Amino acid sequence: MELKIGTMLILEPTYTERVEKFRCKVLEQKDGVIYIDYPVNTITKKTAFLIDGAQFRVTFNNEVKQSFAFNTEVLGRKAGNIPMIMLAYPQDEDVIKIQRREYVRVDTPVDIAVEYDGVFTQFIAADISAGGVLLNLREAVNFNDGDTVRLTIVLPYTSGEIRYVQTDALVVRIFERDERTFASMQFTDTDDLDKQYVVRFCFERQLQIRKKELNEIL
Asked: Do 26 and 33 contact (CB within 8 A), yes or no?
């Protein structure tokens, strides 16, 4: 996918404890490299000086307002009349189209511990998004629709890094489907950093699923 000159990019660091967003503009694209102007922090409005090797999740909109995302890292700088930063641009199959709804659910197993009324139970989620999870209930539970539970979510990334996200969640509905029982849960107090961890995990899994589908076609 060719990025047009002037396309606005939003950069979010993927390996940091801080939740930040930077805005920048595409000035040039050549041989798998994007050249951008120096990004500006969307909150402080200050110019950011990105270090080589720093990794980011990039989101942008095309001319018809479709949203896309990809992972990148800082490759270096290019001097000139306008100083530029060089970012790696992936192959087309690694650029993911973002669905328009607020949170994209990804069908992938995730280990989750549920605490309710002092009882801890281990489950596996059938899918996950930054807004909630669908738990596969393989045993009887002591919570019901409308209850609030405490979740500990294990997020293993492709790099080998593991993050543990803790959040309260509302039990929206317990139901049966295909002779199995599920609980739909909505996160209720996830902080911004933990939400970014979940978004990053979902994005990585989307990439894995897409690559697998492409390999099966080929």
From this structure: no
DSSP bridge partners of 98:
67
Break the chain into its structural domains and give their ranges: 8-98, 110-217
| pTM of the complete model | 0.69
In this structure, the chain runs to a length of: 218
pLDDT tens for each residue of 122-153: 999 999 998 999 999 988 899 999 999 999 99
Residue among 61, 58, 55 nearest 94 (CA): 58
List the beta strands (DSSP E) in the chain. Answer: 8-13, 22-30, 33-36, 40-41, 55-61, 67-78, 84-88, 96-98, 110-116, 119-129, 132-137, 148-156, 162-177, 180-187
- Which CATH superfamily includes the segment(s) 8-98? Electron Transport, Fmn-binding Protein; Chain A (2.30.110.10)
Angle at the Cα of 74 (from 64 to 161), degrees rounded to 5?
95
Domain 110-217 matching CATH 2.40.10.220: the answer reads yes
DSSP state of 93: G
